[in-house]
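User: quick one, fold this
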Amino acid sequence: MRKVLIFLVLVCTALSIGGCIVANGNKGGKGGVVNGDCVYAADWGECAVVIAEIEAIGKLKMESSKTNRYSAIAMRDNLACGAQGKLVKAVFSELRMESSKQRVLLALIENRCFCTAGKMAILKRLSKLHMESNKEQILSVLNERGELKDCEEDAKVVEEGGASF
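Assistant:
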């Protein structure tokens, strides 16, 4: 019983200090915030689960496994802005091969719910890519993507727990 209680306290502590961007505002279909045709998760728990999943993937040993799983997250519908930022941060810190990083970033940019938080996280770390052609391709795809909905303004996203990406 004591071990279970300690485990629960640790999990709650980790989730509370982990930080996440939570959307509040115009309620959409499943308790989310409508932003154009995207519904962002309004439940802190949903975002925290995705962030925990991103962190768990980072602990995998194989680069190909990490890349495949990060790509699957990047393509998810309604991926919250906070999770997008956390995913970008994980891609740059956990993946070694530039082609792996590029694959996940392109998948995220092509997501119909890609938001400004994800774009800012990419632009902030773009200089960490070594090959100039890869940087140019990412910038080109971002430019072709056009203007994004500002998740902080349009969906009234608020930052919780000092999350930074």
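User: anything notable?
Assistant: Residues 20 and 48 are 7 Å apart (CA to CA).
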